[in-house]
Amino acid sequence: MSLTMLITMIVCFAISVSIAVSIGLASVVGISVSHANMLIAAKEMFTSINKFPLAAIPFFILAGNLMETGGISKRLVEFAKSLVGGIQGGLAATCVLTCMIFAAVSGSSVATTFAIGSILIPALVKHGYPVNYAAALQATSAELGVIIPPSIPMILYGVSAEVSIGELFIAGFGPGILIGVALMVFVVVYARIKGYGKNDHVGKLPVLVAARQAWLALLMPVIILGGIYGGVFTPTEASVVAVFYALILGVFIYRETKLADVLRIVRKSVLSSAVIMFIIANAGLFSFMITRAGVPEAIGAFLADTLKSPHYFLLGVNAALFVIGMFIETSASIIVLAPILVPVAIKFGVDPVHFGMIMIVNLALGMITPPFGVNLFAACTVAKISLDRMIPRLIPFVLVVLTCLMVITYFPPLSLFLRDLMYVK
Q1: Does the predicted TM-score (pTM) go above 0.85?
Q2: Which of 114, 136, 163, 66 lies closest to 360 in space, CA to CA?
Q3: Cis upstream peptide for 412 (omega within 30°)
C-alpha cells in the first residue's frame, strides 16, 4: 500500500498536479488498495482540521493582509530605515529588520513578501541595487515570517507533534534573531564589496520622528506577544486580537483602508486560508494512512539502526528535510513528517521543541529554493522578473541561512534558553 501511495504521489507531482490534490489522491488510492472503507477519507480529513489552534491561521493571514493595505507596513519600513538605513547597505538591512518586525504579527512569509516587498523592492532598485538581488533579498528576509513567532508552521507543528504552541513561540526568538542578524551583517558587507547602496541614507527620517509615526504599529507585536506570554489570551485568541488591532489602525487611525476594501481583503484571506486548510486536510489523511501502514515505525527503526548518535541523526534529518522542502510545501511537510520524526528524535534525546525549530527553519528554506519556493514566486510577482534571473542571487542567502541552521541544530540553548526560563518543568 505504501509503495502504491508513493508512486501515485510522484506521478501526480510529475504531471504538475497540485501538492494537496496529489497527497489526497495518493491517500484515496491507498484506501482502495487496502480495501478499507472510503468513509475513512472524509472522517480523517475532517479530524485533521477540526482542531481549535488551527483557527489562528485564517486570522493571522487576515491580519497580515490588513497590515499591508492599512499603512502599517509602510510605517514599519520607515522606522526600520531610521535605525539601520544610514550606512552603506543600510536599505538592504532595513528590508531584513522590517521583515523581522512584521513577522512578529503576520505569521506568514508570503504575506510578508507582498507587504514589505511592494515597498522595499522598488526602493532598493531606485537606490542602485539590481532588481534580481532586491527580489532575492526580499524573498529570503520574508522567510523570517515563519521563524519569528507567531508562526503558522509552528502552530501546525504543535498540533501535529502534540507540543505546546506557547513553548514553540518563545523558542522561535533565538533562531529568528540569529538569522536576522546574520542576514543584516551579510547584506551590509556584501553592499560594501559590490559598491551598492552608497546613497541609502537619502530619505532617512530621524529615529524619533519615525518612531512617533510608527509607535501604534510597533505596539501591535507588543500587544500580541505580550498577551500570549502574559497569559492574557491564547495564541489562537491573539490572532483575533491582531485582526481587530490592524483593522482599527488601518480604517480609523491611519485611514488608509476604506471600508469598501475590507471585503476584498477578507476574500483574499479566505482564499489563502482555504488553500492551507485543504493541504492540512489531505496531509492529515495521508499521515493517517502511512501511520496505519506502519511507515513511521519502520523509518524510526531504520534511522535508529543506521544513525547511531543524535549528531548523525540530526545531520541526516537536515539533509533529508532540505531536499523535501524544495519539492513539498512547508505546511504539508510538517503535518506529514512531524508525527514520523518527532518520536524518533525523542528516542535520541532531542527535545521536541528544539526539533521543531530545526524542522521549521529547514523547511522554511524550501520557500526560497527552486522549483517550488512560494516566496520566490511572490517576490518575482512584486519585482516583475522571471525566476531564473533570481536564482544566482539566492545562493549566498541560502548559504547564510544554512550556516545558521547548523548553529541552531547543534546548539540547543539558542532555542531552549528562553523556553526554560519561562516554562518551569
Answers
A1: no
A2: 163
A3: no
Q: What does the pLDDT profile of the chain (425 residues) look like in tens digits? A: 677 887 888 888 778 787 778 888 888 998 888 888 888 888 888 887 887 777 877 887 788 788 878 888 888 888 988 888 788 889 999 999 988 888 777 767 777 887 788 888 888 888 889 999 999 999 999 888 889 888 888 988 998 888 988 899 899 999 999 999 999 999 999 999 989 888 888 778 888 998 998 898 888 888 887 887 777 887 778 888 888 998 999 888 888 888 888 889 899 888 878 877 887 788 778 878 877 777 766 766 677 677 778 888 899 889 888 888 877 777 778 887 888 889 889 888 999 999 999 999 998 888 888 766 778 877 888 888 887 888 889 999 999 999 999 999 999 999 999 888 876 55
- Integer CA distances (angstroms), 198 to 87, 131, 204, 361, 396, in order: 8, 16, 13, 32, 21
The CB density around residue 24, as the number of other CB atoms within 10 Å, is 23
